[in-house]
C-alpha cells in the first residue's frame, strides 16, 4: 500500500516536472528577455522569488508571505504588494509571469492561462535536492541565473557541513495540529533526520498524513515532541497540542517548535536543521 | 421501577468500564485498571487518567444530562418530539461556546466557556418556548426548532469563518455533531458545576410533571405553581445542555430516543422517567462513544453521526404516529 502510494507519488512528480520543463521551453521561446512584471501567488514561490528576483522585478506576493508564523521572509514581504490569489486581481496587475506551486488552485491557474498570462508551477520540494532544483529553476524563470547560482553555492556549502552521521539519535515525533505527523518522504521528515534525530512516529508506522492518536503518542514516549506555533483565536485542532498528555511529554524538555523555516523548500530549511541540531546537542550533551 | 433502574445502572457501569478499556493503545484489562488506580507515572497511567477517564466521565455526564433534559421537556410540553438537539437548544449553546472561544473570553476566564454556552442555550430554549406556545403543539414546536437551529448553525459558521485561526473554520462538524475525542479532566471540571446545578433543577420537577399529565387546570388545582415549574425547566435544561455542548459540541437525538424507549417501562410516569432517562442517556452516549472508536478508530467519527443514525428513523416514526393519532 505505502509502496504504491510512494511510486504513484514519484510518477506524479515526474509528470509535474515534465510539464514544468515543457512550460519552460515554451516560455523561453516566447520571450527572450527576463520577465519584468512577476506575480507570485504561493508562499513557497513567494520566498524563492524574493530571494532571487532583481530590483522591482517582483510586483506582488501572496498575503500569506506576510504571516510571520509561516513565512521566513515576512519583513521583506511587508514592503511588497500582496495578492489573495484571485484571478481577477492578478489579471489587473498585468503580469508577464505568474509563479505558482503544483498544488495551487487549478481553476485560478486555468483562468489566468485562458486570459493569456504565462503561468509556471514549481513542484513541491520533498528533498534537499528538490530545494536546490527549485532555486535553479527560479533563477532560470526570472533570468537571474547568477543570483541563483550564488544562493545555490552557499546552500551546498552549508548542506555539506551538516552531513555528518549522528551516533546517538534521540527519538522525536512531529506532532502538528489535529495530531498529523510527517514521514521520511517529506521535507519536514528529512529535516528531523538531518538534525540527528530518529523519527519515532515513522518507526511506529505513522507516516506522512497519518494522525497519531494521543494514546499512541503517550505509548511512544518520544524524547522530543515537535509541535507548531499556534495561531491566534481558538481551534480544537490546536487545543490538543496543549492536552495534559502532550504537556507531560514536553515537560522538562526543550520546547522545540516547527516554525516558518520548516514549511517551504527554501534555503531556510538549513537554518531549521541547524537549530534542531543544536537542540539535539544540548539533549545528548555532545558537541556537534 | 426498581426492575428498570437496576438493569440500567448495571448497563451504565459495564459500558463505563468498556469505555475505559477501549482505545488505540491496546492496553490489557488488568494493566489498564492497575495503571488507573495505582498510578506509576508511566505512559499507561497518563493514558488511563488523562485520556480515557475524562472521556468516559464526560460521556456519562453529558449522556445522562441529555436524556434527563429530553424527558423533562417532553413531560412539560406533553410532546414526544421535544428534544434539546432537535429544537435548537444545543445549536444555540454551541453558538455561545464558539463566541466565548473566538473572542478570547474562554482563555481569560475559565468559566467563560460554559457560562456563554449556558447563555446561548437559555436564549435558544426561551425562543423556542415563546414561539411554540405553552402547550407546545407539534408543528409549531418543530418549526420553531428548525428556525432556531438554522440561525444558530449559520451564526456558528460565520463566527468560525471570521476567526483568525485557519483551523477553526474546518471545525463546524465538531460543533454540529459533537465528539469526545482528546478531551481532558479540565473539560470535566468546566462542565461539572453547571451540569450538577441543572440536573438538580430538572430531577426535582417530577411531582409537577406528574400532575401536569392531568392537564394544566388540574395541576394548578393540585397546587403546582406552573410558572415556577416552567422557569425551573428552562434554566435546568439550559444549564445541562449548555455545559455539555461547551465541551463536546451539539449531540442530538439522545433526548429523543431514550425517553421514547423507557416510557412504557416506567408506566409513563414523568417523575420516574426523569431518573430512568438519566441512566438511559448515559448508557446510550457511552455506547455511542465506544462505537465511534471501534468503527473508525483513526478518523474521529462524530458522536452525532451515530446518535442520528439511531435517532432519525425513530423521529420519522414518531411524526407518522402523531399524524395518525390526529386523524
UniProtKB/TrEMBL annotation, chain A:
GO terms for biological process: cellular response to iron ion. It comes from the Bacteria. It comes from Roseovarius spongiae. Pfam families: Peripla_BP_2 (PF01497). This is ABC transporter substrate-binding protein. Residues 37-284 form the Fe/B12 periplasmic-binding domain. InterPro entries: ABC_Transporter_SBP, ABC_transptr_periplasmic_BD.
TrEMBL record, chain B:
It holds the Pfam family FecCD. GO terms for biological process: cobalamin transport. Keywords: Cell membrane, Membrane, Transmembrane, Transmembrane helix, Transport. One of its GO terms (cellular component) is plasma membrane. Its main location: membrane. Belongs to the binding-protein-dependent transport system permease family. FecCD subfamily. This is Iron ABC transporter permease.
Amino acid at each position: 500500500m505505502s509502496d504504491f502510494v510512494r511510486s504513484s507519488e514519484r510518477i506524479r512528480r515526474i509528470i509535474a516536472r515534465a510539464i514544468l520543463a515543457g512550460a519552460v521551453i515554451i516560455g523561453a521561446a516566447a520571450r527572450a528577455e527576463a520577465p519584468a512584471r512577476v506575480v507570485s501567488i504561493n508562499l513557497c514561490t513567494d520566498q524563492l522569488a524574493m530571494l532571487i528576483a532583481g530590483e522591482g522585478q517582483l510586483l506582488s506576493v501572496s498575503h500569506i508571505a506576510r504571516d510571520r508564523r509561516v513565512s521566513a521572509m515576512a519583513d521583506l514581504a511587508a514592503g511588497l504588494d500582496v495578492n489573495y490569489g484571485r484571478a481577477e486581481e492578478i489579471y489587473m496587475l498585468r503580469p508577464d509571469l505568474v509563479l505558482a506551486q503544483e498544488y495551487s488552485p487549478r481553476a485560478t491557474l486555468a483562468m489566468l492561462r485562458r486570459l493569456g498570462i504565462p503561468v509556471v508551477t514549481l513542484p513541491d520540494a520533498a528533498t534537499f535536492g528538490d530545494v536546490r532544483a527549485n532555486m535553479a529553476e527560479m533563477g532560470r524563470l526570472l533570468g537571474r541565473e547568477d543570483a541563483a547560482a550564488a544562493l545555490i553555492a552557499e546552500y551546498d556549502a552549508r548542506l555539506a557541513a551538516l552531513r555528518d552521521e549522528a551516533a546517538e539519535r534521540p527519538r522525536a515525533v512531529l506532532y502538528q495540529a489535529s495530531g498529523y505527523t510527517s514521514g521520511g518522504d517529506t521535507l519536514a521528515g528529512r529535516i528531523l533526520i538531518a538534525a540527528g534525530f530518529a523519527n519515532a512516529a515513522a518507526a511506529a508506522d505513522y507516516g506522512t498524513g497519518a494522525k497519531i492518536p494521543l494514546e499512541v503518542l503517550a505509548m511512544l514516549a518520544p524524547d522530543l515532541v515537535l509541535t507548531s506555533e499556534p495561531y491566534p483565536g481558538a481551534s480544537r485542532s490546536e487545543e490538543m497540542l496543549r492536552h495534559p498528555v502532550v504537556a507531560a511529554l514536553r515537560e522538562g524538555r526543550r520546547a522545540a517548535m516547527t516554525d516558518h523555516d520548516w514549511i517551504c523548500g527554501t534555503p531556510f530549511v538549513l537554518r531549521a536543521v541547524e537549530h534542531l541540531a543544536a537542540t539535539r546537542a544540548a539533549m545528548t550533551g555532545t558537541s556537534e | 421501577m426498581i426492575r428498570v433502574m437496576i438493569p440500567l445502572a448495571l448497563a451504565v457501569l459495564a459500558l463505563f468500564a468498556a469505555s475505559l478499556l477501549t482505545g488505540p493503545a491496546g492496553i490489557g484489562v488488568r494493566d489498564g485498571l492497575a495503571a488507573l488506580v495505582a498510578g506509576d507515572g508511566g505512559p499507561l497511567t497518563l493514558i488511563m487518567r488523562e485520556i480515557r477517564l475524562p472521556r468516559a466521565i464526560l460521556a456519562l455526564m453529558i449522556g445522562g444530562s441529555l436524556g434527563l433534559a429530553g424527558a423533562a421537556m417532553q413531560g412539560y410540553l406533553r410532546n414526544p418530539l421535544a428534544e434539546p438537539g432537535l429544537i435548537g437548544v444545543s445549536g444555540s449553546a454551541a453558538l455561545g461556546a464558539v463566541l466565548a472561544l473566538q473572542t478570547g473570553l474562554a482563555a481569560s476566564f475559565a468559566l467563560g466557556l460554559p457560562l456563554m454556552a449556558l447563555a446561548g442555550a437559555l436564549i435558544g430554549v426561551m425562543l423556542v418556548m415563546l414561539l411554540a406556545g405553552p402547550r407546545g403543539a407539534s408543528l409549531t414546536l418543530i418549526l420553531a426548532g428548525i428556525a432556531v437551529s438554522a440561525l444558530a448553525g449559520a451564526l456558528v459558521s460565520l463566527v468560525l469563518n471570521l476567526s483568525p485561526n485557519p483551523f477553526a473554520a474546518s471545525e463546524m462538524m465538531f460543533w454540529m455533531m459533537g465528539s469526545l475525542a482528546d478531551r481532558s479532566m479540565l473539560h470535566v471540571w468546566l462542565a461539572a458545576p453547571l451540569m450538577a446545578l441543572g440536573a438538580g433543577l430538572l430531577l426535582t420537577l417530577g411531582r409537577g410533571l406528574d400532575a401536569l399529565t392531568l392537564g394544566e387546570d388540574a395541576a394548578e388545582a393540585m397546587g403546582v405553581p406552573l410558572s415556577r415549574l416552567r422557569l425551573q425547566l428552562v434554566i435546568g435544561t439550559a444549564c445541562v445542555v449548555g455545559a455539555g455542548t461547551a465541551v463536546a459540541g451539539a449531540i442530538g437525538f439522545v433526548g429523543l430516543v431514550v425517553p421514547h424507549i423507557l416510557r412504557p417501562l416506567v408506566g409513563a410516569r414523568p417523575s420516574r422517567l426523569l431518573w430512568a432517562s438519566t441512566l438511559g442517556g448515559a448508557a446510550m452516549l457511552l455506547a455511542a462513544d465506544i462505537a465511534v472508536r471501534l468503527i473508525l478508530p483513526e478518523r474521529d467519527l462524530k458522536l452525532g453521526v451515530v446518535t442520528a443514525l439511531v435517532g432519525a428513523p425513530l423521529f420519522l416514526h414518531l411524526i407518522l404516529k402523531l399524524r395518525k393519532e390526529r386523524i
